[in-house]
Amino acid sequence: MTASAQPDDAAFQIDLLDTPKAEPIRMRTLVLLRWFAIGGQMAAVIVAWTMGIGFPKLPVLLLVAASVTMNLWLFLRPPKRTSPKRAVLQLSFDLVQISTLMALTGGMANPFALLVLAPVTIAAASLNARQVLALGLATVALISVAAVFGVPLRDPGGEILRMEPILALAHWVALVIGVVFFAGYAHRVTGELSDTSGALFATQMALAREQRLQHLGGVVAAAAHEMGTPLATIKLIAGELADELRDRPDLQADADALRDSADRCAAILRSMGRAGKDDLHMRAAPLRAVLEDAASPHADRGPVVEILGDGPVIRRDPGIIHALRNLIQNAVDFAASRVVIEAQVTAGALVVTVRDDGPGYPVALLSRIGDPYLTRRADAQRGSYEGMGLGLFIAKTLLERSGARLTFANGGPGAVVSVRWPLDRIRAHDRAALAHNPTIDA
């Protein structure tokens, strides 16, 4: 069974919603960015003052002092964690401070007006869409207020430094477009990075689970082998006791029960030992055996799973097996009645093709097959990665790590996935020495 096989199997679910939430952005980062802004604002004030540019100096200095005070307060009483609400409040403070500075120093004529985009861009990279939208609308509103009610700058001679109305309008439009573009772009990129990070985490969890199962199977196989002798001894002694207690029917029944229990334990261990030994004590296996292992959890799910062709002895890697299981699971999920797994050896390459007779991949999504969180099926369990496009992403990631190249297409009819390895990357020597079996201490 694979980690994404059935949504009702709690052992195979990765709950991505119950994991601890990270801070949206560290307060230390916000404080540091604000110190940089304060330094730039003071440098601009000093240069303008030196050049004799006229502007309301006291209100501007008070606004800069307000930022300094906020930073000192955060330094003396830093919060333990930065919640989204705290981050929004801090960025809102920066937005109001910068917008007011812009209004007091020329409005649209201020060459540094583009810095008003900084708070909403930072928000887009760290907060959710609703919070980003609220800050974006507030930014547009404050830019508009600064454009209409901005205090004009004056040159050393006292003349007002004006911008032509058409240029002022163009500057306003450019800033509004900047709000939409930078916020949207930063939010989209951050979201994709977050999805990819979560998907890679799910991949690592799935592979780690597969490897744990492999190691567990090896221990079970070794335990079955080691416990065979003591169980045989128990059975022998129980049989002798039963023969000697023929005149004591009550004690003879106990001896018979002990012998039957020993037989049952031996049968269970033989079954577990075969499963562990066949799957786990070999580092290499014929390709067909690996494909049968990958397909076995889905053999009784409805559609007929047929394996065609054969191939060389390959590396028996848990990542490869798990990835192939995910590809086969996806085919079985959408097949009408039949899934075909075909193996071919071409010039210097091994190709495994998985095709089904279902509806195929949506044409609009075909170029994005293998991306994380591609689809969200309506019947998928919320909070798990079942049905969220992670199955194919995990398979693609694990197979590419093994040296394979994947191709997704429609045809046959239905969906077709081709996995192609260079033979020297996948072939293994079946005569190689086996690893040491786990030892069981008595």
TrEMBL record:
EC number: 2.7.13.3
Regions that span the bilayer: 31-52, 58-76, 101-126, 132-153, 165-186
Major location (coarse): membrane
Cellular compartments per GO CC: plasma membrane
Reaction(s) catalysed (UniProt annotation): ATP + protein L-histidine = ADP + protein N-phospho-L-histidine
Signal sequence region: none
Cellular localization per UniProt: Cell membrane
Pfam assignment, any one: HATPase_c
PROSITE patterns: HIS_KIN
Membrane topology: Multi-pass membrane protein
Root EC class: transferase
Occurrences of domain Histidine kinase (ranges): 222-425
Record InterPro entries: 2C_sensor_his_kinase, HATPase_C_sf, HATPase_dom, His_kinase_dom, HisK_dim/P_dom, HisK_dim/P_sf, RegB, Sig_transdc_His_kin-like_C
GO molecular function, one term: ATP binding
Keywords: ATP-binding, Cell membrane, Kinase, Membrane, Nucleotide-binding, Phosphoprotein, Transferase, Transmembrane, Transmembrane helix
Domain of life: Bacteria
SMART domains (UniProt xref): HATPase_c (SM00387), HisKA (SM00388)
Protein name: histidine kinase
Species of the source: Paracoccus aestuarii
